[in-house]
Design a protein that fits this description.
It is built from 14 helices and ten strands. It is α/β, with parallel strands linked by helices.
């Protein structure tokens, strides 16, 4: 039998040592004396370990996606940068040029990220090509989700799961034969369908797994609520499950997102809107009478109303707050059509971002009249208002921007918005912004 890869338990300690070696190696460029080298190297080592435990930097598993690894590295890099500059601020007499410090951090994290990704890719290829570093599994209970899991194991050898068998449950005696199979075949992980097991059978499997050091996992297919991203907490010694955990609610994440919003919105206001606004204003005024800017009430964080700003792209009309623009809408001006096609009309919303009414990325806010209607008729629509609305969002770059033509459009938009608020990361924001710019350059079907 091939080795199951228990040596993988050594990967994390080895990763710590390699990363610390990289940090200390590049730190030699500062050329401190012996005493100061010991102090700085000790500070780097302790800070890195404590920070890694806080940020879960080494919580990378065989099923972890590349974007998660990049996000963890970015988050670790931002916080470690603050710690390093804090060190030089405290020992100011040993201060170094900020450019040298940034060079040190840049080289270190480039190498660390390259090593981390290379190891992740190597292990995937190793599992797929040579069959090593695998986990033997079984699935107890034949249900639709059990079949899906079995197909996942069979179709994705790079994850290193070898499913020995899927058991149908007939009786408690059947459970005893499964226990025997697990021991005889050296099964590493047991997956159970909660829909197909009684409480007595579940307790029997739990007792067996605990006594034989087997990893036990459950497929939450008997209650829809279990398939959600639940947050597990303790009130004293009482376990409590809450429906969702919103990453932006964590203070450090809220600070990072707000800092990113201010930085980007200020850059757009100073370097783009400062010269573009007069040009757009002239074009708007030449074609039609009316204000250069258009403001409209929208619902934002906690359902609070605010004025959302845009460049005016329509002729002044009494239906602006009631009806969305549609294809070949006669209200749209010629310059307005161009601005909508390129999303230039949305640029004044960076003032909303700077003020704090909006974020650069988030669920797109709707007209108040539409919001009230959607809130009453679209399931989970109100969840979007747990966070600030955005100039662009995951739904928009996934094909659901512009006019809501069918019920499915708004339902899918809400699904993407909820996924975004439950899985937010700064890297995801950057990815959405990049995709938005690319879409604006290429043009979109519903950009009218």
């Amino acid at each position: 039998m091939a080795r199951t890869g228990r040596y993988s338990t050594y990967i994390r300690p080895a990763s710590y040592l390699i990363d610390l070696a990289v940090l200390i190696f590049f730190a030699s460029q500062f050329k401190f004396g012996l005493e100061m080298n010991i102090i700085f190297f000790s500070y780097v080592t302790v800070s890195w370990i404590l920070l890694s435990l806080y940020s879960n930097f080494y919580e990378v598993y065989r099923y972890t996606k590349f974007v998660k690894i990049a996000s963890l590295t970015f988050f670790q890099g931002v916080l470690f940068t603050l710690l390093v500059f804090g060190f030089f601020g405290y020992f100011y007499q040993f201060g170094r040029d900020p450019n040298r410090i940034f060079l040190y951090l840049g080289k270190s994290f480039a190498v660390i990220f390259l090593i981390k990704v290379s190891l992740h890719v190597f292990l995937k290829k190793y599992r797929e090509g040579l069959g090593g570093n695998f986990r033997t599994t079984i699935i107890i209970g034949d249900s639709p989700k059990s079949q899906q899991l079995k197909s996942f194991f069979d179709d994705n050898p790079e994850y290193g799961y070898q499913c020995q068998k899927l058991f149908k449950i007939r009786s408690n005696s059947n459970i005893e034969s499964i226990h025997k199979f697990v021991l005889e075949n050296e099964v590493d992980e047991i997956y159970c369908s909660m829909a197909k097991l009684t409480n007595e059978q579940i307790n029997s499997i739990i007792k067996f797994a605990d006594n034989n050091l087997k990893v036990l996992k459950f497929l939450p297919d008997n209650k829809d609520v279990y398939s959600r991203k639940l947050n597990y907490e303790y009130y004293g010694y009482l376990p409590i499950l809450s429906l969702r955990k919103i990453p932006i609610d964590i203070p450090v994440n809220r600070f990072l997102k707000r800092f990113f919003d201010i930085l980007l919105s200020l850059g757009v206001i100073v370097f783009i809107l400062s010269w573009l606004t007069p040009l757009i204003a002239i074009c708007i005024k030449i074609e039609s009478k009316g204000a250069v800017f258009f403001k409209q009430k929208r619902n934002g964080l906690d359902y609070e109303e605010f004025y959302c700003y845009k460049f005016r792209s329509m002729k002044p009309n009494p239906e602006a707050d009631l009806h969305q623009a549609n294809k070949n809408d006669k209200r749209i001006t010629k310059i307005g059509k161009f601005m909508r096609k390129t999303s230039i009309d949305e640029l004044p919303q960076f003032f909303n971002v700077f003020k704090g009414d909006m974020s650069v990325v988030g669920p797109r806010p709707h007209m108040v009249s539409h919001t009230h209607n959607f809130a009453e008729n679209v399931d989970k629509f109100m969840v979007r208002h747990f966070i600030k609305p955005g100039i662009t969002g995951l739904a928009q770059v996934s094909g659901y921007r512009g006019e809501v033509e069918t019920d499915q459009d708004i339902i899918n938009r809400v699904k993407y918005d909820i996924f975004y608020l439950e899985n937010w990361s700064l890297l995801l924001d950057i990815k959405i912004i990049f995709q938005t710019v690319m879409n604006a350059v290429k043009g979109e079907k519903k950009a009218y």
